[in-house]
Each structure stands twice: as C-alpha cells, then as structure tokens.
Design a protein that fits this description.
alpha+beta, 6 helices, two-stranded antiparallel sheet
Length: about 190
C-alpha cells in the first residue's frame, strides 16, 4: 500500500437542537498529509438522506482515485443513519466506520423507539451492519474489505491522531462552522 493512498473522510458539523438541516463535510486526501479536496452538502437533521449525500460526493471529481471511504460513525446530524451497504453497492469502494468508543446499542435503540415512527426500520438497518471491532485504540466497522486492509489503511492515513487524518480534518472544519454560527448570532444582536 502506497504512502499517499487516496481516501475520503466524512463527518458532520455540530448543530443546534432547533436546526432542520446539517452540514456534511468530506475531505479527500492523499495519505496523511496532502488535502486535495473539501466538499460540503446539506442534509436533514434526523432524516435519512445522508447516504445519498456521501455517495454524491464520493462519485464526484476524485471518484476513480478513492481507495476507501471513512465515516466518523454511522449517524450524522442526530440519527441520520449512513447505510454502509448502499454506499458500498453504489460506489464500489470499501466503507470504513471509525469511532472512539464502543457504541451502546441498547441506548441508541431506546432513543430511536422514543422519537422515531420508523424506529424499527432504522434499528434493523443498524443491526444489519457488521459488528464493531476494536483496532488498536479505536473501533471500526467495515464493508467491502477485510481487517488487514483496514488496519493498513488506518495506519497509512493517520498522522499524530489515532484516527485517519481525513476524518480529523473534516471534524476540524465542522467545528469551524460552529464558530461561524457564534459570529453570525453575535452580529444579529
């Protein structure tokens, strides 16, 4: 595996309780040092459209170069669930979910049942995903590849953090949107 392997990483910007839309950030990188593209899409908070937005960005300008898609978790903008199977089926790229701590599925399922009419559909989708595995000091789920590939590509794409740099950069950009909101709100006062 080459040092400058091309990957794209997705995270969402922080959002407020009353927001109806959220911002998806995709960072395309070569390895762990070269950013070659940053992409944005709006999606519905707690909706079911983030999968299409991830596919849309992935199938854009850098599609032929991308060797893997990294996701910062499976939920974006509250409980907008990224369908790992559909992303892989429509892009033909390995999908690797990276999370900090082991998810409490019972807590997630309970929240879904409490707030969503389509809770059963969302719960069944989550249950259909591969099991979460510990990989060094992170947790991963993956579709369209194997553990050796995941281990190697995570190693090649992280820099000083424990997560791939494309995810870290997407996260930092997302935090910037939170600062922008603070500035805009101050200007309205």
């Amino acid at each position: 595996m080459k040092d400058e392997i091309e990957v794209i990483g997705f995270d969402d910007a922080p959002f407020n309780k009353n927001d109806k839309v959220c911002i998806l950030i995709g960072t395309f990188m070569r390895g762990n040092k070269i950013i070659d593209g940053v992409y944005f899409r709006e999606f519905k908070k707690d909706g079911m459209d983030v999968t299409d937005k991830i596919i849309d960005i992935t199938k854009g300008k850098h599609y032929n170069k991308i060797k893997a898609i990294f996701l910062s978790g499976i939920t974006f903008g509250g409980f907008n669930i990224a369908n790992l199977w559909e992303i892989y089926r429509k892009t033909k790229k390995p999908v690797i979910v990276v999370i900090d701590k082991y998810p409490n599925k019972e807590k997630i399922f309970s929240a879904l049942k409490k707030y969503f009419d389509d809770a059963d559909e969302r719960i069944n989708l989550i249950k259909s995903f591969p099991d979460v595995e510990k990989l060094d000091n992170i947790y991963v789920q993956y579709v369209g590849t194997n553990r050796d590939f995941v281990k190697n590509i995570v190693k090649k794409t992280k820099l000083k953090s424990k997560i791939p740099e494309c995810l870290r950069i997407s996260h930092l950009i997302g935090r910037g949107f939170l600062e922008l909101k603070k500035i805009n709100y101050k200007n309205l006062e």
